[in-house]
Structures are given as C-alpha cells and as structure tokens.
Amino acid sequence: MDGSAGATGPTGAAAESPADSSAGLPTGFPADIHTWSAGRIAASVQAGELRAVDVVRAHLARIERLNPQLEAFRVIRREQALAEASAVDAHAERATLPLAGVPVAIKDNVEVAGEMTGNGSGAGSSEPATVDHPVVVRLRAAGAVVVGVTNVPELCLTPMSDSVHGVPRNPWKLARTPGGSSGGSAAAVAAGLVPLAHGNDGLGSIRIPAACCGLVGIKPGSGVVPPSIDATPVWDGLSDHGPLATTVQDAALCLSVMGADSSLATLDSPERLRVGLSLRQTQVGLPIDRRYTAATTAVSVVLESCGHTVSAHRGRYPSWQGTGALRSWFSFAWSGSRPLEHARLDKRTRRMAAVGRILEALHADGARARAKWRSGAADAFFGDFDVLLLPALAQPAPSSARWGQRGLLRNTYTCLRVASLLSPWNLAGWPAMSVPAGVDEQGMPIGVQLVARPGGERLLLSLAAQLESARPWQRQAPGWD
Predict the structure, then answer these.
(1) Active site residue 256
(2) Amidase domain: from which residue to which, for each copy (predicted)?
(3) Is 263 a residue of the active site?
(4) Is 63 exposed, middle or buried (0-12, 13-18, 19+ CB in 10 A)?
(5) What's phi and psi for 256, nearest 5 deg?
C-alpha cells in the first residue's frame, strides 16, 4: 500500500468508472464545479441557475474517478444521491434551503438510513441503519445531498484513518495519512470530491485531519450539535459533530445547519480581542515541531495587524490532564469494543481495549481528570484571554499505512507525538477549530488551533474569517484538476 511513497497529487491515470455519472451534463455546465464553495453551489441551485442533479452528477463522476487513489469513501451512494438531488430540484421551497444541492460526505460512525454504519471495523453488524442520525437529518432538510460515507480508523480511535475498509491517502502527498479519525472526510474535501464533509471530534478528530489536509475544521462546544440518535453523550461527552470545509464561511454555514442555529452563519469582524499565544506541549517529552511554532507565531503577527492584542500565554498544562486524556482514550477503546467480536478487531484495537479494561477495573479510567479539568481547571489555565492560539499538530502527519495491524506501543507513541495538543478542549467541552497557516518545505499544510470558552463558536469563526481575509490560503490540494 506504500507504492506511491513520495508522490504529490495523482500519480497516474485515474481508474475509469464503470458508469460515468457525468454523462448527460448540460452544455455550458461549469467544468470547475469541484472548486466552487458550498455557499456558491447552494446559491446557484436556489436561483435555478444550476440543477442539483447536475451538480451531484458531476461530483459523483469525480468521486468515481479519483476515489480509487484516495480511498476516501467506503460507500458511494450513486443512485440514492441522484434521487435525493432530483427531490431538491422539485422542492417547493428550494430557494430557502441553505445547502440546496450541495454534495456532502458523512463520516462512517453515524447512521445514514439504508447504509451499514461500519465505524472502521469488520467486527460489527452489517445491518443497514433504519433512520438517519440527527446531523444527517438536518443536512438533508437543508437541501444537502449525501453522496457517500467516508473511511475512518477502527472505532475512530486514532489520527490515522486506515481500516479493513481502506487506507485513505492525503491529497497533498499520497504517502501521508489525511489524519483521523475524520480522515476520509478530509481527503474528500481537500481533493474537491465534495465541498463539505461531516466529521466528529472526541480527542481531535476534526482538527487533526483539517490540519493535515489544509482545511477549516471546527469542533463546537458540548451540546451545540446533537451527539446521537437518542441524545446519549458519546465518549462521556467529549465527542462533538462539526464540518470540514475549504472556507470559513462554508464551515460556518454547515455548522449553522448541524446546530440548528442560523446565527452561526453570520460572521462579523470581531472587536479587539485578547489573544493568548501558547507554544507549550501538554506533556514533557512531546516536542512541538519548530515549523509549527513558527507558523503559529506568524499567525499571531497577522492577528496583531488586524487590531487584536496578542500576548504570550504562560500557563502550563497540569500533568494529570495529559495522563487523564491518555487513560480516557484507552477506556473508550474498551467501552466501544465491548459489544463487538474481539477476534475480528484490529490488533491495535484489541490491545487498547485490554489496557482500557484494566484501567476500568482499577478505577483509573480518566473520569476524575475529565471532571476536574471541566469543573474549573480549564478555565484557570485559559486565563484572561478571549481566544487561545496554538499549533494544531505537534509533529507532521504519519505515513498512510495499515497502522491498525501494528503494535500498541508504536501506535500510542505516534498518536501522542502528533496529536497531543487537541485533547484538552475535548475534556473541557469547549469550542476549538483548526485553520490553515501555510505549507512546509515539503509542500504539506500546517494548521493552527483557535480555542474559545463555551458559546464561542461564532467568535472563533469570525476571527478565522478575518484571518482568511488577511492571509488567504490555498483551498484544495494541488494537482487534482
């Protein structure tokens, strides 16, 4: 699976689709539709300038042509998506649908009616879901069209998205992972297969792939988006649903639909903010790559030029916070694997579950650390700032490989080195997002993280939009036209 090591963008002729979904597109249909923002697509469909069915047909053709290289999708919903798009075109109130005709991808750990929810595993049920997850319900009601289900790592446990269903690759460099656990979704957006994708984030799983793939990804605070069909918190309330997009406005539009709060889509230039620049690691022995600290510092200069006050954040993460996140991670592996046939799980998942079972028996599953951080320690750490600015990743994205069949120690070390800066804000239940901040000398994206207190989703999006205006980024990975 590593035959394309070192390649950037497509490495050869794309696989031919057995049935070309682009057949029948009208004369003059925009050939660059895959570069359009979700907002632009929706406005064109609302006005009747484009038909949703043609927009979806064009995106399906691109998915069918490029997915064999990227392995972003586990399921491509060709016939169902075209039928859904036709229903949007016939909708009596199409002009009011905020995501009219916008193709979206759904992460493979929430229910899509008629599809099996794989959760990256071959050990679960193969029965299709009978109802949609609330997030899918809201996206469909807004006029979005579900074109497919994206690949994730088993039980969505790691920042690498390989599983028995596929090994997603990063469109910026095929030898690298697109991150995880929303890696398939991120790869799909970064390569222009869809303008928007659903993700969720329990210990960084939206922000990690956003940073790996040069995207905007926001994890809202607890309770903004319904966690599950029956409103049961996922991962003890640490996991929240959010969008992956190429622009801040698209992310805001999608989150406004997911959270049923139209005000989130209206962004204003924020007043003068107190921004804390934090360049500390969460735990000793986990260094931050100097390129990422430099990129974060450069963003702080841009924010200062926008009129904000940036000061060094000198707080130190308490040691128990990092170990509590680690213990929580293993305990979630154990709780998530309990109903499954363990013999069919990946090697890594079995080992993680075994550790989690021991931690639970010892009453050392991280619950007390989570409660302590959420009940006041996070607020004390945050200090007097309105927003924290810090690196998203601590180290570059790992290789795209079958990590699930590798050993526990190697996986744990890699995950901690790359993704340790994100978990504090899951434990706190606070909103946080990743925003593009340039590329490194190898042409790979760099992301920075913005964090706010509860209720600060619109503040973060508005600040990110200001940053995007001041220093625009490349919206999609190069070489996929």
Answers:
(1) no
(2) 54-310, 376-461
(3) no
(4) buried
(5) -65, -35
At 266, the amino acid letter reads: T
Q: Could you give the CA distance from residue 135 to residue 141 in angstroms, rounded to a whole number?
A: 10
Catalytic residue, chosen from 205, 420, 434, 462, is 205
Do residues 431 and 457 touch, judged by C-beta distance below 8 A? yes
What is the token pair recorded at 5? 């090591």
Q: What is the Cα–Cα distance from 177 to 183, expressed in whole angstroms? A: 8
CA atoms within 13 A on the CB side of 42: 26
pLDDT in tens, the chain (481 residues): 333 334 445 543 333 333 455 668 999 999 999 999 999 999 999 999 999 999 999 999 999 999 999 999 999 999 999 999 999 999 999 999 999 999 999 999 999 999 999 999 999 999 999 999 999 999 999 999 999 999 999 999 999 999 999 999 999 999 999 999 999 999 999 999 999 999 999 999 999 999 999 999 999 999 999 999 999 999 999 999 999 999 999 999 999 999 999 999 999 999 999 999 999 999 999 999 999 999 999 999 999 999 999 999 999 999 999 999 999 999 999 999 999 999 999 999 999 999 999 999 999 999 999 999 999 999 999 999 999 999 999 999 999 999 999 999 999 999 999 999 999 999 999 999 999 999 999 999 999 999 999 999 999 999 999 999 999 999 999 999 8
- CATH T-level topology, domain 33-320+351-470: Amidase signature (AS) enzymes (3.90.1300)
- Catalytic hit among 17, 37, 181, 423: 181
Cα-trace Rg, the chain = 21
Rounded Cα–Cα distance for residues 339 and 125 (Å): 10
Of the residues 44, 107, 121, 278, only one is catalytic, namely 107
